[in-house]
Structure formats: C-alpha cells, structure tokens
Amino acid sequence: MTAHLSDQDIQRDAISGARILVGDMLMWSDLDSLDVPLAAREIVRAAIAAKRPRRVLLAGPRAGLLVDTVPADVPVDLLVRALPDARTLGDRAGLHRSADLYCGGLDVFEPAHTYDLVVALGGPERLLGPDSEGLTDGQTVARLSAMLDDGGRLVLDLANELGFTDLVSAVPDETLESDAGWHVGAHGFGSRHLFARERTTLLQGEGLHVEACFAALPTVDEHRVLVHEEAPRDDRLRDQVGFQAGLAMDEHFAATPMLREPRNVVERVVDGGLLDELAPAWLVVATKGAGVAAASYPAIVVAEPESDSPWSTVTVVAPDAAQSVSWAASRADTETSEGTVARGLAPLAQGRSFELDLRRACATRRHAAIRARVRRYAAWLSDNQTWTKQTAEQRFFATPANTLVDGDDLRLADRSWRRTGVVSAEDALVRGLRDFARRLLASGSAHPWRVTVTPDELTVTLGAMAGVTVTSVMIARVARIEAEVAATVAGRPEDIEELLARNLEQGEFSRDLPAPDEIGFRELLTHDRVISRELREKHGQVKWLEGTLRHRDRYIRSLERVIERYEDTLTYRAVEALRAPRRIATEKAVAVAKTTAQDALPPGALSKARQLAARMLK
Predict the structure, then answer these.
(1) How many helices and strands (H and E) does the chain possess?
(2) Quick one: pLDDT band at residue 326, thresholds 50, 70, 90?
C-alpha cells in the first residue's frame, strides 16, 4: 500500500467533503438509474453478523447505498465515481461515527489502511470513469483483494459472459448504445466477462476462498433474486427457485421483445441444474486467509423493486426452507394499507407456475389441453372451501401469474395482498384470463389463435372454454378495479381515470402491437424470413433472366452482321432490282381484276360469297 492520500495532492468537494481522485465524473449520476440492492443487503448483513468488521469499504454507487447496513460505530469508506452520488451518499452516511468519501476511479484509490469487509458492486464499469485506467474483471478482483485484511471478507458481483439473458433477448442492451456504454472498446477493459468455470480459479489466484456464491437475477446491476448455488439441488427449494427466478426475468423483459419465453427458459435451466453456469451475474462472498469464522447465508433472497415504496417486501429463505419476510423500508409493523388495498407480511407458497403451465398448453396449439386448464382454474376460483370469508378478499389477486400448481391443487403464490370488497368468482376469472391474455400476446408467445387477436377477444374465447360469457360490461368493471388498485399502490389516486383508459386500451390492442392488424414479434421474424427467402429467389431469377437477355442480344447482333454482309453482295442487289418491276406489275394486275369482277357481278355478290365461304370453312 502507498502512503495515505494527503490534502496537498487531492481536492475536496466543499459540499460533501469527498476527496476528488482521478476518474471523477462531475456531471454524471449512477444513482439516477440504480436502486438500493435489497437482496445484496441481506448477504452483507449475514457477513457482518458472522464477524463484526473493524473497517469497511463500500465501492461503487450501489454498494454505497448499503451504508445504513454497516453499524454506526464502524468506520466506513465510500468510493464512487460521480460527484452528485458522493453528495447523496454523504447525507446517508451522516450518522456514522467515521465516514470518508472518495470520488474517482478504483485504479487510483490507494488508502493507507486495509479493510476486513469490502463490498464492491457493479464491476469495473461502475468503479471506473472515462479518465481512469481500464481494468479487467481479474485486475479489479486483484486490487480489491490487496485492500483486504487476512481473515476479511469480500462481497462483489461479477457479470457472466454466457448469461441466459442474452439467449432470450431479441434486442441488444440499450445501455451499450448510451453514454453508460463508454467503456465498450476502451483501452484496458476486458473484451468479455467471465465464464462460470473461470470464477473460482480467478478468486483463488488472488488468495481468496469462495465462501458462498449466488446466482444474481435479472442483471448485474439489479439483484432482484439471489439463489445460493446449493439451492437448486434441494427438492424443497427447486420449485420456488424456478418460480421466483422466472418471475424476476419475466418482469425484466415485460416491455422488451424476446426470442423465447423467459419463464420457460429459466424453469428448464433450473431443472437442468445449470443456473450457476447460465445466470446473468453472480454475487460472490470470498474470504482471505485461513481461520475465518463461517457465516450462515440464506438459500434464496427475493427483493421486490422500488425499495422506497411502502408496499415492497424482502423475503429471505433459509437452507431449511424457513422464511422470513420484512418490509424493504425496514419498518417494524406487519401490515400496510391505503384505501381498499392492504398488504401484510406473508411467506411465499410452494409450487410451480400455473401461468407457465397454461402457456405451454397454448404452445401445443391443442384447444383441449387449454380448455382443461382453464376449467380447472375457473373451478378453483369458484370453490367456496378455498375462498372463505377470511380469504375471499385475496381472490382478486389470484391471476395465473400469481398461482402455483402443487400436485393436483392450485394455490395462491403471494397471499399478502387483500382488497376490501369481495370480488365474484366470474369477475376474478375475467381478471385472471385477461391478465394472462395480455401478457401472452405482449410476449409474442405461441398460441393457436389468429395473429391479430386482441387481449379482450382472447379473454372472451378463454372464458367460453369455462362456460362463462365475458361481456364488455364485465371487462370494464374489472378494468376499473385494476385501475383503482394500481392508483392506490402508486400513491396517486388522482390518476384513476388515466389508468383506466390505459387499461382498456391495452385490452383493445396488444401491448407490443401498434395496431390491431399488425403481427406479433415472433410472427414478424417468421414473415421477415419468408420475405427474405422470396427476395433471394426473385434476385436469382432476375440474374438468370438478365443473363438470358444478354445471350439473346449477342445472338441478334451476330444475325444482323450476317444480314448486312448478305445485303452487300452483288447477287442480292441484282435480285432486288429484278423483283421490284415484277412486284409492281403483279399488284396492278390484281387491282384491275378486282375492279373488272366488281363491275361484272351483281351488287352484294362478293359479300354473299364471303359468307358462304365462311360457313363452308366451319
């Protein structure tokens, strides 16, 4: 380690007191697009519980948001690259006894002391600025390991070069085309991220031992779900891993064209035991040195988005399948409510996704299979033993996306939501089928109906399979309830009418389709391939015809040259000279004969002769 940075060779921000290093970004903010890493917060809490740290380094803007997790009497250093973020985090770190802020790149961060807990999130893309010297993933790990005490812990996330996010997305990452993608192709950065087989070797090469590794979904910058590498091997947890991972990926791709259905892909990846190899990113906990006290880490962490929302929760599933649910805002109460909507802290149920089962039935294009599942769903919603006075208020939230299949039974996945006022079984069915139809068509998934079908039309068809006649009045009633719930949860009751209009419009036009007569994304790709093939065929035909025309042009030119040579001969000129008087005399003789015949014959005789000849020829 070099000497401690002095005030003589660095600058200080007058507002936050942050020390300005090389690689600072004065007019940029990472926190504008990033949220609190609630799932990673649970892992950091487990690491702190295993060993109280002496000094902590939080590197990166998302790691800086975890400053509240560090005990207030433990010195903490925060390193970010953007000055606005340093000022924001300075306010959050104000209650700590000692909190030093640094604004700049990791490549020039050389503190005089080491740490026994280092949390670095975002990789070199978030830890370095345009003026920094580029670092690969391996070099970043090496620098972080050098700052770690023997017996200390490193918590960092790593991007996977072979994550299944790239396997199902139909469009490139938008951030790479924006200013945030400045590092692409920049000097010093790696040409790719790590593969799963390289992860452990890289860490061991820097003197680190992997204590725990979690698959991070849906992206390296957004840890909605963390899955311990041992969890998919446990029969008690495998279904829950598949459901929660699929839900996170489905919400991440809600407005993005896809090549394949993400839930289906995730379920197969989990069932195949390949989640660690194909996860979009990993959150790794590594220790340095020997004799480190073992920590107890959760098997699954599920964090809902919008950490500042009073409705968001964090669910921690232990290795023995025990669950603990808390509010994202760390409140002590067990329930929140507003208007007719209420939510409590309820554990997640076990089972496989019913929506995925229904989508697979649609993909087979067998109406009998779809009808059987829709009738099963309708029977469950109308079962009075399931929806008693205590649970009837939850029926409105029993959409296929929030329903699990457990053997022969259906059950509610998230039982924490309630709405005052019992919704009838028919309205709950319409709401569930309409939500399923909207999501099915928006994702471009396979189904047996025409391409131009709208969600409302598909809702009518699915309802008919269950013997329910879905009317526009029922759809309008359900849409209004959905708008009221959405406005209440968003904290904007004045937006009910706007949300209602948008809800009704989504039923008339599929979300990803600009007009009712347009085709879906998958069908568009198929149509594009057909047109491309036809264009190639037409292009080949045009090339053949052009070659044929060129050949005929050459043949005609050769014939013209032969004729020209023949016309230049003495024989041809002599024959033409003899033919001209003879032709003229013949024409005059024919004309005189016609005139004599017309004069000698009675009127109309020639016309009758022509008609008689025509009849004879027939």
Answers:
(1) 19, 19
(2) very high
